[in-house]
Automatic annotation (TrEMBL), chains A, B, C, D, E, F:
Its cofactor is Mn(2+). Belongs to the arginase family. Agmatinase subfamily. It comes from the Bacteria. InterPro entries: Agmatinase-rel, Ureohydrolase, Ureohydrolase_dom_sf, Ureohydrolase_Mn_BS. It comes from Mesorhizobium australicum. This is Agmatinase. GO terms for biological process: putrescine biosynthetic process from arginine, via agmatine. Mn(2+) 2 binds at H126. NCBIfam families: agmatinase. Gene3D superfamilies: Ureohydrolase domain. Binds 2 manganese ions per subunit. The keyword Hydrolase applies. SUPFAM superfamilies: Arginase/deacetylase.
Length: 322, 322, 322, 322, 322, 322
C-alpha cells in the first residue's frame, strides 16, 4: 500500500493556499477501513440554545488547518509516520431535524469505529459529542477528559427539552456511555443558572477543575490530575473551544471571559500522553463570530495536538497487539 | 388617553444612542389592546437550511431603528399622528423545537389580531411568516405582496421535511391561508434547484415578477401590477430582506446577487398605498453576517415605510367605520 | 413587594437573544427608591481627546450582558437574592455640551444616592466619573480603587482645558471628592507625556501599582494592597476597560499594550470583598472599535463581578443597620 | 519655480503603498502662498449629534487617496498640469472645545484664502463647513451646491444648542455667508423630525432636489438645475458623503438608505464645469464605521473630481486675469 | 460512463455548508480528458503592483460557490445537463517566482486544451490571463471580451518590468495571442497615469467601452457591440471583478468607484450567447479585502453565468460536429 | 541646530489623529546625516510564501504609532532627549522584482549606516532583514537577538528558491553577515516541515529558546540568556511580530498559536539594556489580516521600546567617544 497517500500535501512544495481545503491537507478518503485515524466534520448546530454558527465550523477549520506542518515542534515526531490518517468528509447532518441528525452522526462514527479506525471529529456544537460517544462507547462506558467553560450537564432547557448543547453529558451518563468516576472537566467558569447541575455532577463522582483551580495547579498539575482520573481505561477527549479565553477564541457561541490560555492548553494536552484515547472531538467553533479566522486556526492546532496523541495511542496499541 | 405614550423618544432632545433600544424608540407595551399597530420581534431561525442568524435579527433592527425619525420624508405624514404604535416585545420562540415555535409565534400574533391590532413582525427567518399568516388569515385566505429573491414554495427539504424557510408559502396555500390568485412575488432571481417549484407556483395562478421583469417594468409598473393582483381584499405584506441586492443587504442567509435597489424598494412600497394591508413582516435579517449593521438599518427603514402604509390603512378603515 | 420583579429574565426559559436588551436582562425601572442597586448607562464621550465612541458603550454592554446568568460561578451566590437590582435607563447627556452633561449626569446619580440606592454606572468616557463622584461623595470625600492604564490625573489638555477624560481625578481631588491617601491605581502603564502628572500624584499620597508591580505582586497581593489603601471608609470603584490588555478589550479609545489579563482582574475584584463600596463605574467601552463585541462582553462580566461586590456590601450594611 | 514639486508621487515608479500618506501623494507644504489649490484636513467632529468618527476622516482619506492617478479618465486632463496643488496639513482643531475649533478652522482657511489659494477641505463633520464658509465668504455671500441626505438647516438641538452638524447652513445664512437664492441641495431624503426646517428653507428661496426628484431628472438634469441656481457668482461646493447610498459609503454617522449612486455623483459633478467655484469640502467620512475603507476611497475619488473642477476654475480665472 | 459523477452535490439533500469546498460542489477530477469544461484555480498574485491577495481567490470562490444551484434561473437550463464539468484543482503556482509561475499555469491550461476540454480559470491576478491565453490561442490568435475597470495594456511598471497585472494584454498582443481588432473592453474608468496606454490601444484597433458609454448604451447595447467586435471566431472571455462597482465587489486590489452593477453584468453576459467562447477566466478576487465574502459570492455567480455560456458553446460545437 | 525639530508632535497640544501620519509623529527628514537614529519603512513582501500583506505594514504602523507618547513609562527617559530621531521615509522597493528590491533596501540602509546613523526598519516581510544585515554588517559579522515563532533558517522553498521570508538568516550566515555563535532565537514554536533546519541551526552553534523554555525561564531568564549569547560585540535585533501570540498580533502572515505575551516581550526587551545594538527591525505586520489595527499598535509599542534601547546605545557610544 502506498503510505504517501495519507500524507499532507507538502507546503514547502505547494503553497498552503492552493487547492481545495481538506483537514491538514490530507486526502479525502471514503472508506474508514483504509485508515487508522479518521478526521471528519460534523457541520451541525442543532443543539445550540444561543448564538448559532458551528454548522460552518468544519469548513473553516479545514481552511485554516492548511497552516499546520507535518511534524510536531516539540516531540519532533509526525503522526503521519506513525499511522494512516485521512479526511473522511463530513457526517450527514440535517439543520432542521435534531434527532435524525443525532442518529446519522452516530451511524457515521459507528462505521469508523467498526472499521477499526479512531474517530477525530471537528464540530459542530457540543450535542454532537453525544452522538459520537454512542459510537465510541459501543464496547462499554468510557472515561472522558473534557475541556470546557461549561459543564454541559444540564437536565433540560426551554421547558423540558432534553437534547441541547447544554445537556449532552447528562444524557451520555444516563445512557451508560460515560463512567462518571473517570470523567474530568477542565476550565469550568463563569456565571451559572443555579447550583443544581453542579450538585448533580458532584453526586456522580465527576472531577471538576474550575479555571481558578487550574490556575493554582498549573498545566502540569492539571494534566496529572486528568491522567489520574481517566486511569488506564479507554477514554474520550472532548475539547470545547470555549474552554479557551475568548481573546484567543472569539468564534464561539457562548464565550466566557477569563479562560485557558493556548500555552496552558498545549502543556495540558502534551501531558496526556499515557491516556488510552479511543476517540476525540473539537467542537463549538463558530465562523460567523470569528471574523479573522483565529479561532479556527487555534482549533486546527489543537486538533493537531490531539491527532499526535491519538497516533501515539494507535502505535502503542499496535505494538501491544491490540 | 395619552397619545404621547405611543410616540418615539424625540432624537432632537435625547440622543439616538441613549437608552435601551426598542423598535423606533417606541415604548414597550404588553397589552395589544392598547395599540393600533403592534411591532414585535420573532427571534427565531429554526427553519433555516443554510447560514443561520436571523434569531438575532429583532435585536439588531431595534438598535438601528433608533436612526428613524417620526415623520415620513416624502408624504410629510407621521404614522404616530394617525394611530397608536408600540413595541410589543418578542414572540416566544424556541431555538430547539420547530413546531412548538411555530405554535407560540402564531399564538402571539393571534392575540394581537384578536385584540384588533395590526401585527408588524420583525423576523426571524421566513418560516415565521407561516405562523404569522395563521393569525392574519383567521377570517379567511388573504392576498400577499411578497418581496423575495426566492419563491419559498418548495415542497420539502432534506428528505421530506415539510417545514423550512424554503417552504412556508406552499404550506400556507395548502392550509388555505393564502388566496394564490391574489399573491404576487417580486424580485425572484438566481439559480434554482429545478423548475418544479415554478411549475407548481404557476399552476396555482401566482403572479411572479422576476428581477429581470421588475427592471423592465420599473418601480411604478411593479407597484401597479402588485396593486392589480392584490386587489381590494385583505392583504399580507411579506418582505424578505434578501430581495434587495446583497451589496445593500449582506446580512442575510441566502444572498442572491443582482437584486432590487433600495430606491426601487421605496418607490414600489410607496406605490402600494391603496392596498388593504392587514399584517406584515420584514424577515431574514442575519446580524452575524452584517458586520456594519447596514442590513438592519435598511430593514428598519423598510419597516418604517411599511408602518406608514399600515397606519394609513388603519386610518382608512377607522374612517370607513371598519 | 414582588421580588421577582427585580430578577433577570431566565435564559433557560427565554433565549438570551430575545427581547429588548437591558442590563443583565433586568427590568427597566424609573424610580430609584424601588431598588437597592441602580445600574444605568452614561452614553457620553464629551471628554474624549482621541478616538471617540464610548457614547455607544451602554447600549452594547446591555446587549452582551444578556450572556450573564444569575448566580456567581465561584461564590455560588446571586446578587439578585441579596437585594433589588434594576436597569434605571441612561443618565441624560448631551454630545455637544460638556458642562451641561457633567451636571445632568451628576444630578441623575445624585437622585439615586439620595434615594438610598447604590449607583453602578456603565460609561461613557472617564470624565463621567467626575460627575458620578460628585454624587457619591455628597457626604464627604471617598476612597477609590481605580483600574486603568492611565492615571487620568493631568492638569489640562489642548491649551488649558481642565475637563477631559484625562483629568477627572485631578479635578475630583481639587473638588474634595476623593481622599487621595485612600486612592489606589492599578494597572498603570505605557508611554507618558512627561513625569509631571506622576509627581503631582505622588505628592498627593496616592498609591500607584503599575502593571510591572502588579505582575510581581500577583492578583492576591494587589487586592491586599488595594484593601489596605482603601481602608474601612466609603470607597468608589472605577474600572476603565483599558486597564485590561487590548487583545481582550480592543474596543476602547486609548489602548495600551501589555495590560491586565481577565483572570487577574477577576482575582483582584474577588479579593475586594471587605471594602465598603458605595458606588462604581465601568467606563471607556467604545463599540465602534469593538467589531466582535468582546470588549462589551468583558465589561458586562466585570460589571457583574462588581454588582456581586456591591450586593454583598448592601447586605452587610443592611445587616449592620446602616 | 519647480513645478514638479507639486505633482503626486508617480505610482508607476513608486508603489502606492509606499511612504507616509498625504492627499493624492502630494507634498506637504506649509505656506499657502506657494500653491493655487490647498487641500487640507479638518480632523474634527465636535458638532456630531449621533455616531462620532469624522475626526479620523482626513487621515483615512489621505491613505486611500494614494489610489488616485494624476490624469482624469474622461477629460484626459490633469489638475497638476493646470495649477499648483499641495497638502497643507490639517487645520488646528480641538476635540473638547467647539467654539475654539470653529475659530481655528476659520482662521486656517482664511489664511489660505488671503494668500490667494483655493481651499479644498476634507472633513470632519458638517459643522466644519460653517467655519470654512466664514473664510470663503469674506468678500460677500456665496452660492452653494450642497450634496447631502439632510438639509442641515435645523435651528437648534438638545435644548437650544445652535452649533451642531445639523445646523451649519442656517447659521451661515444668518451670518450672511450664503445667498440662499443661490443655494441648491441635492439628494435630500429620509425620515424627518418635523416639516419646520423644510418650511424655513423654502421661505429662504433655497432650491431642494430630493432624491426622488434627482431620480426623475437624471444626473444631467440635476447638474443643469444646479448650474442654473448657482448662476455666475462665486460658489461653494459642499459634499456630505452621506448623500451617497450607504452601500457605497457606510462610513458615516447618519446614513440614510436609498441615496445617490457614485455614477450619478460623477455625472453631476462633471456637469458643474461652468460654475465659478471658490472653495469646497468633502465631509462626514467616519473611519470607525468604514471597516474596509470603501467610503474613504469614494471620498478620495470625489475629492479628485472636485479638484479637477477647481483646477479648471483657477485656470479660467487666471486666463481672465482675475 | 456515469454522468452523475459530474453533477454538483444536491443542496436540497446535503446542506451547502457540508463537506470540503469545491467549485460548484463538483467532484475533483485530475484528468481533463474526462470532462468537457474544466474549472480550476490559479492561486497566484505574482503580478500585483498594489494591494495583494488574489492568491487566496480560488479557495474563497470555492467556498461561496456552494451557494449556486444547478439550474440557471432565467434560461431554466443546467450546464450539467449539457456537458461534463468538474473541479480540476489548482494550477501549480509559485509565490516567489513570476516566470516559473507563468510557465506552469500555461502548461496546466495547455494540458486541458489539448485534452479537448474548455478551461474556466478562477484567479488569481490578471497576469494569469497571459498564461491562459498562451494555451487558449495555441491554434492562432483569439478575440477577447474583457470586463475591467482598467485596460491592463501598460507597457511596463517600476522601471521597465514587462510582466505585471497591468500589462498582460499588451504582452498577449505582442505575442500574437490576441487579434486586437476582435478585442472589446467593457467598464473602463477611473483616473489614469497618462494617455499613452489609451493611444497605443486605439492604434491597435481595440474597441473600448468606458463606463460612461456603457451607461448610455445600456446592457443590451453593450452586449450587441461586444458580439459585433468578437465576431464569429474563437473568443476568450476575461472577467476582472474590479469591473464591478466596489460596493458590490470590495475584495479586489485596485478598486475603482462608479463601476458596473451586477444586474448590468448579468444582462451583458446573457447577451453573449452567440459568441464562440473557447476559454474564460474570472480574476482579481482578493479575500483579504473581502471580509464578508460578498465579492467571492458575486464571482461565483459570474463564473456560473460564464459556465452556462461555455456549456452552450460546447453543446453547439458538438452538434456542429466540431 | 534646532533639537526640537526631531521631537514628536505633542499630543497634548495637537490631537493624535491630526496631520499626516509619520513614525512616532516625527518629522520626515531625507538626509540621514542629520539624525542619530533613522526610522524607516520597508513596504515589501516579495519573500512571502503564504498570506501576503506586509507591504502595507509601514503605513499602518505609522498610523498607530501616533498613540505613543514621548517618555518611556518605566525608565522615565525619552529617546528624544538622548538623540536625534526622524522618519526617513520608505526604502525603495519593487513588488514584482525580488532581487532588485533586496538591493535597493540594502543600499538605502547602507546610506544610513555610512552616515553614522542607526537604522530602525519597520517591515515588510522577514526577507527584508537580509538586506538590512548587509548594511548593518558592513564592518564584519554581527550577533543577533531574534524574536520569532519560526527560525527562518530554511535552505530553500518551492523547488530550490533560496530567497524567501523563510530563509533570510541561512543566507545571512552563508554571506558572513551573522556570527552564529552570537545568535539567539526567542519564541520558536509550532509544527515544522522536518527537523533538518533545526539540525543545521544547531550545527552552527545558534542558541534557540523555544516558547516552552521561555515559559520556564521567565522573561528575566530569557533576557539574561540573550545578553550572554550576544556578548559585548555589535548586535542586530530582529523582531518578527509573529513571535507574539496571535490573539495579540493577528495581523501577520504565518500566525502560530501559543506565543509570547506582550508583558513578557516588554520585560525581555527591557532586559537587553547592556547589549550593543547597532541596528534593528520590526517585521511581518500584515494590515490586511489586522482589521482592528491592534497588531500595528503593538508593533509601534515594540518599536518604541527598541528605539529607547537604541537611544541609550547611541548615548553610551557617544559618551565612550565611539
Amino acid at each position: 500500500m502506498n503510505e504517501r497517500r495519507f500524507a499532507p500535501i507538502d507546503s514547502i512544495a505547494v503553497p498552503r493556499f492552493a487547492g481545495p481545503a481538506t483537514f491538514m491537507r490530507l486526502p479525502v478518503i471514503e472508506d474508514p477501513a483504509l485508515v487508522d485515524i479518521a478526521i471528519f466534520g460534523v457541520p451541525w448546530d442543532g443543539g445550540t440554545t444561543n448564538r448559532p454558527g458551528p454548522r460552518h465550523g468544519p469548513r473553516q477549520v479545514r481552511d485554516m488547518s492548511g497552516m499546520i506542518r507535518r511534524v510536531h515542534g516539540v516531540s519532533k515526531r509526525s503522526p503521519y509516520d506513525l499511522c494512516k490518517v485521512a479526511d473522511l468528509g463530513d457526517a450527514p447532518t440535517n439543520p432542521i431535524d435534531l434527532h435524525r441528525s443525532l442518529e446519522s452522526i452516530a451511524a457515521f462514527a459507528d462505521r469508523i469505529v467498526k472499521a477499526g479506525a479512531v474517530p477525530l471529529a471537528i464540530g459542530g456544537d457540543h450535542l454532537s459529542s453525544l452522538a459520537l460517544l454512542r459510537a465510541a462507547a459501543r464496547s462499554g462506558p468510557v472515561g472522558m477528559i473534557h475541556f470546557d467553560a461549561h459543564q454541559d450537564m444540564a437536565d433540560s432547557y426551554f421547558g423540558g427539552l432534553k437534547y441541547t448543547h447544554g445537556t449532552p453529558f447528562r444524557r451520555a451518563i444516563e445512557e451508560g456511555l460515560l463512567d462518571p468516576r473517570r470523567v474530568v472537566q477542565i476550565g469550568i467558569r463563569g456565571s451559572i443558572y443555579s447550583t443544581d447541575d453542579e450538585q448533580w455532577t458532584a453526586s456522580q463522582g465527576i472531577r471538576v477543575i474550575p479555571i481558578e483551580e487550574a490556575d493554582a495547579l498549573g498545566p502540569d498539575g492539571v494534566a496529572a490530575e486528568a491522567r489520574r482520573v481517566a486511569g488506564s481505561g479507554p477514554t474520550y477527549l472532548s475539547f470545547d473551544i470555549d474552554s479557551v479565553d475568548p481573546a484567543f477564541a472569539p468564534g464561539t457561541g457562548t464565550p466566557e471571559v477569563a479562560g485557558l490560555l493556548p500555552r496552558e492548553v498545549n502543556a495540558i494536552l502534551r501531558g496526556l500522553k499515557d491516556v488510552d484515547l479511543v476517540a476525540a472531538d473539537v467542537v463549538e467553533v463558530s465562523p460567523p463570530f470569528d471574523a479573522g479566522g483565529g479561532t479556527a486556526l487555534l482549533a486546527a492546532n489543537i486538533a493537531f495536538e490531539i491527532l499526535c496523541l491519538l497516533a501515539e495511542c494507535v502505535a502503542l496499541r499496535r505494538a501491544a497487539g491490540r
